[in-house]
Amino acid sequence: MAIVAVMMAGAAAAQPVIETPMSAHAVIQRDRPIIVTGRADPGEALTIVLGDRNVRAKAGRDGRWRATLPAMSAGGPYRLTVTGADGAAASLDDLLIGDVWLCSGQSNMEYETRSTLNGTGIVRGSADPQIRLLSMEQRVAFSPETPLDQRPQWAAAGPDTVGQFSAACYLMVKQLKADQKVPMGAIDSSWGGTAIRPWIAGVDAAKLPGMADDVALLDLYQRDRSAGVARFAERWGAWWRKLSGDAQGQEPWHAPDRRHWKPVPGFGPWEEWGVPETADLNATIWFRNAFTLDAVTGDAVLELGGIDELDTVWVNGVAVGSSFGWGNVRRYTVPAKVLKKGENQVVAAVTDGYGPGGMFGPASAIQLVPSGGSPIALGDGWRYSIVTQPGGVNVPRVPWESHGGLSTLYNGMIAPLGPIGLKGVAWYQGESDAGKPGYDTRMAALMAGWRRQFGIADLPFLIVGLANFGPPPIAPVDSGWAVVREEQRRAALADGHAAIVTTVDIGERTDIHPANKNTLAERLVRAASALAYGAEKPASGPMIASAAMQGGDVVLRFNDVTGTLYAWSATGPIGFELCDTGGCRFADGRVEGDRVVLKGDGRPVTRVRYAWADAPVVNLFDDAPLPVVPFETAIGAADVR
After folding, report:
1. What is the rounded distance in angstroms from the CA atom of residue 364 to the CA atom of residue 349?
2. Is the C or the N end of the chain the one with fewer CB within 10 Å?
């Protein structure tokens, strides 16, 4: 009988688990059905209670369960309890019902509150139990089904939590809470330096031009790392042969002695080597070394220390790894079949496109660890060879990396949020997509995938246009940043549930991370008020509506003007360009209410550009006051929602 009792105790039902990415102190979206998910024993009957609402659910054969509670009005705090058939329960306390905003993007969204204008004072006075904050861990995943390592933790706003939280996100929800008078939840899921590709769901990325192959490659890598690396190495090799003219089998990883090599002066940024050629170099540099094996005992691990920023590594002519990271430690498995008794060659291509680059070491961390054997030191004997061909910095990138990969951050930082309710999304990203046409289609794909996940077809998106950064133009120029701004504008225009939040006037010439997130937050609040809360005001500010010839002049008409347009500190607006097939030139103009008339110069005009530079100087505002959104439009075109 004692044995039977022990067996019955061991077979007792496990305590239910709440898997929905919430914790104590979370904010749950008001006025929408509340979806809760979790795990329990297969087939177990469960009762889910939140406040005065309750529903029943049953775990499936895999132990997974999902329940939908009726929508609730703003209020709280409440306790969420999930109770199994035997009375075992899981609960979360201090939950509020209010509005939840998801903030995402790269470093300007990640930018901390303590660093913004008057950050110290803002943080000191930030205590508010009705504002709750959640920071998602920066995390790469290869599948949207990858579970979180640990539950995200919500916390009330206060000096201990606000200082390191996203400034734009916090300041936005702080003002929205004051305006709407309901609890606010802010989720920061951002990562500096990232392109938009990693944030797009794989099923949506696969439909975009040129991305289907990367989707397939990522899937292969997830199933078989070595096969994925080998497939990518074929792409890398084709790129190198086209760039260098090397024949098949004559590339540096197969025939390193064909290149001229010099001893590596030391580990660390190559800008600090004391070598004139690398003092200010953004390029690819080849590195090589060798090691000797008395016998092959199995797979080995090649440890290369920190590398900045892209690398692809071959051992005996076989690719063993490729990744991205600013000084992150590289560690690659070398299959036994790649190794050989005697001398083995290691060749690495290291690419740096911004800031310091190279093999950072330290020397003591660079080694080969054979299976069952002692580490073989590889801290000495490295040589290098600089790639001098133009375009040598534009190496192929693996789809499984963090910053330029495909769906890796959606899988790791957005998909784990599951089907939670949201009020809207604030998106600040694009700097890393300059020079990569098609941002509007990528943005549309991102919005489609996120709306599908959160189950809200008209989920508002507040898209922050790139801020001005760099030297002001003294003549019309081509600008990758201007192209991104224009494609951001077109993405919002085509969507119907998105707005552009303009920052073209509040950037800093010498800092890509402007500190004035205060004005940005004010504009985010305005856009949110119009899109998410029904305020009768323009969400984005003045937007080009049409461009037409009138005599020899060009007449521009603008939508969404509050009051009238003004040229600040001048008799007329600046920053306009008249363009034809031969190029663009600055144009003089005058303001007439919601119109701008550009004076013709007797030359052909096919299109008009405004604020077309990385760091344009602008002076055209309305009564809001909001700056005119930068644009490019054809004569005769109507950019109307």
Report:
1. 21
2. N
Q: pLDDT tens across 340-396, in order?
A: 999 999 999 999 998 999 999 999 999 999 999 899 999 999 999 999 999 999 999
- Per-residue confidence band for 408, with pLDDT thresholds at 50, 70 and 90: very high
Counts for the chain of helices (H) and strands (E), in that order? 12, 34
Q: How far, in Å, CA of 369 to CA of 301, rounded?
A: 5
Q: Taking Cα atoms as reference points, which of 263, 368, 365 lies closest to residue 320? A: 368
Integer Rg of the chain from CA: 28
Asked if residue 580 lies in contact with residue 601, where contact means CB atoms within 8 angstroms, the answer is no
Question: Rounded to an integer, what distance in angstroms lies between the CA atom of residue 12 and that of residue 401?
Answer: 43
What pTM does this model have? 0.93
pLDDT value of position 318? 98
Q: CA neighbours within 13 Å on the CB side: how many for 501?
A: 27
The answer to whether the CB of 497 falls within 8 A of the CB of 461 is yes
Q: Which long-range CB contacts under 8 A does 335-340 form with residues at least 24 apart? A: 335/226, 335/299, 336/296, 336/297, 336/298, 336/299, 336/300, 336/371, 339/293, 339/296, 339/300, 339/315, 340/293, 340/296, 340/316
| Bridge partners (DSSP) listed for residue 101 | 186, 424
Measured CA to CA, the distance from residue 204 to residue 403 in angstroms comes to 18
In this prediction, residue 489 carries a pLDDT of 98
With residue 306 as reference, give the H or E element that holds it. strand 300-308
Q: Which of 404, 409, 427, 289 is nearest to 353 (CA)?
A: 404
CB atoms within 10 A of CB 112: 17
State how beta strands 284-293 and 383-386 pair.
Answer: antiparallel
Whether the predicted pLDDT of 202 surpasses 50: yes
pLDDT confidence band for 80 (50 / 70 / 90) = very high
